């Protein structure tokens, strides 16, 4: 597998000045659709649907774990496994999903998030399987889920939860994906970036609302996004603040406005020991 470097033309095109930045989300979604079309030409929708429906491995209750944390007044941590990102390049040269998952679990993480997107994050489905087998935590498949085929695939690879990004989906597409995921006993984290997307997400029958502090079109992060949107989320939903969270003070800041969970990756993975980084983030050292 090739690694992202400063000489990578794709990365360089992404990391240009703001006025020149291409719409990263559009690029990733185009690549994802092409990759999914290729996969579905090898294994049809009917075939992967049958495989998913016959899956015997029970899901681990991603939403349930976060609800239990919330009931105890504790902050839930969804700790992320990823090798790279468009904004940071390669985060860990020695990327080992198994070791990282164990460190996360031992340090008190509530759930895992594993990147399976291949082109920009250099993940793959095997990373999710390896991480899940190494621990007992429920796992979010972090990817750009755009087609029903991918929802079935998520169940086949033993994901417990899928991510739906409202910026990448029409309302009818999101609704179809939610219904399908429920039929497969998959939980759903619906991600929003602004008030319009939040209103669309609240129309869906989901309890997990992810507020992403990173603008996927410019890659900039601002925790103020969570502070602005959290008061608009009804109390029967669980708010997950995502991106740009680096310290215990950051966690306290989003918790103060109603976030019950956080999704953190880069600031944990950039440290030598991911477990120690989790303890520092949660203030449990």
TrEMBL record:
Which top-level group of life is the source organism from?
Bacteria
Give the metabolic or biological pathway: Amino-acid biosynthesis; L-tryptophan biosynthesis; L-tryptophan from chorismate: step 4/5
The biological process GO terms on file are: L-tryptophan biosynthetic process
> Which CDD domains does this UniProt record tie to the protein?
IGPS
Q: Which reaction does it catalyse?
A: 1-(2-carboxyphenylamino)-1-deoxy-D-ribulose 5-phosphate + H(+) = (1S,2R)-1-C-(indol-3-yl)glycerol 3-phosphate + CO2 + H2O
Q: Which Pfam families match?
A: IGPS
Swiss-Prot/TrEMBL keywords: Amino-acid biosynthesis, Aromatic amino acid biosynthesis, Decarboxylase, Lyase, Tryptophan biosynthesis
- Membrane spanning stretches: none
This enzyme's EC code(s):
4.1.1.48
The Indole-3-glycerol phosphate synthase domain covers: 27-281
Give one GO term, molecular function aspect: phosphoribosylanthranilate isomerase activity
Q: Which family does it belong to?
A: Belongs to the TrpC family.
Check the record and name the PANTHER family matching this protein.
Answer: INDOLE-3-GLYCEROL-PHOSPHATE SYNTHASE, TRYPTOPHAN BIOSYNTHESIS PROTEIN
- The name this protein carries in UniProt is Indole-3-glycerol phosphate synthase
Name of the gene: trpC
């Amino acid at each position: 597998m090739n690694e992202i470097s400063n000489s990578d033309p794709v990365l360089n095109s992404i990391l240009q000045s703001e006025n020149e930045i291409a719409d990263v989300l559009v690029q990733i979604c185009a690549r994802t659709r092409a990759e999914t079309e290729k996969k579905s030409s090898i294994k049809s929708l009917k075939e992967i649907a049958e495989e998913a429906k016959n899956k015997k491995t029970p899901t681990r209750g991603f939403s349930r774990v976060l609800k239990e944390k919330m009931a105890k007044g504790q902050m839930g941590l969804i700790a992320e496994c990823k090798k790279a990102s468009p904004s940071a390049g390669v985060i860990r040269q020695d990327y080992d999903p198994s070791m990282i998952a164990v460190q996360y679990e031992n340090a008190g993480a509530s759930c895992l998030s594993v990147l399976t997107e291949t082109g920009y994050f250099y993940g793959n489905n095997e990373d999710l399987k390896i991480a899940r087998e190494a621990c007992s935590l429920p796992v979010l498949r972090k990817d750009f889920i755009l087609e029903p085929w991918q929802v079935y695939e998520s169940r086949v690879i033993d994901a417990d939860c899928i991510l739906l990004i409202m910026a990448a989906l029409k309302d009818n597409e999101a609704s179809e994906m939610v219904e399908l995921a429920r039929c497969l006993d998959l939980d759903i984290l619906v991600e929003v970036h602004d008030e319009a997307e939040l209103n669309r997400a609240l129309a869906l029958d989901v309890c997990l609302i992810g507020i992403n502090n990173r603008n996927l079109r410019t890659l900039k992060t601002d925790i103020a996004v969570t502070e602005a949107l959290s008061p608009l989320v009804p109390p029967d939903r669980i708010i997950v603040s995502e991106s740009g969270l680096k310290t215990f003070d950051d966690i306290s800041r989003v918790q103060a406005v109603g976030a019950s969970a956080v999704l953190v990756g880069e600031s944990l993975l950039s440290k030598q020991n991911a477990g120690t980084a989790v303890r520092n983030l949660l203030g449990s050292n």
